[in-house]
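New to this. Explain these tokens.
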Amino acid sequence: MFTGIVTDVGEVLAIEERQTGIRLKIASGYLADSIDIGASIAHAGICLTAVDKGSEGNRNWFAVEASPETLNVTTMKTWAPGSRINLERSLRLGDEMGGHLVTGHVDGVAEVIGRDNDGDMAVLSFRVPEAFARFIAAKGSVALDGTSLTVNLVDGNTFTVMLIPHTLDVTTWGAIKVGDEVNFEVDLMARYAARLMAAQPAG
């Protein structure tokens, strides 16, 4: 479980094709000794398990593996050596809940359809598949590329969020542009609310 508060920006060092899926080597600011093998780390909102770790020179790295299903439903299939990705380590008991509950199970991708810079802030517009429109509400939460964000305006299957200078500085959002795709996870509370509504008897 995660909170959508990015704690580092990692860099893809290498991608190795496996018999099934891929293995990625990620450089990060996390100390290698602090990463347990088997630990969960969110990569642009995708929960992956650390399977190896080490250091080379002054850079720490860890390795993760991803299944074909993960590649099919996320932006990971577009990653290449040099790609920068938002990272977050899993929530521990007693940690501050700064964002909202994020599972790291990406629902799909959202397309950036607009970016308006407002001083040192940015207003971004997104389009998601129609099936997810019912989960998005003004003032509600969404996770985009692993970042917990508050929805401003909603119009059908499009919505906007505003990014503050700090978020633009410490995540990959500063470089985002129209036409880019990002990983999208609906709010857990919205998912359960929709399920409860669907289970109500008609009449």
Observations:
- Helices lie at 68-73, 165-170, 188-199.
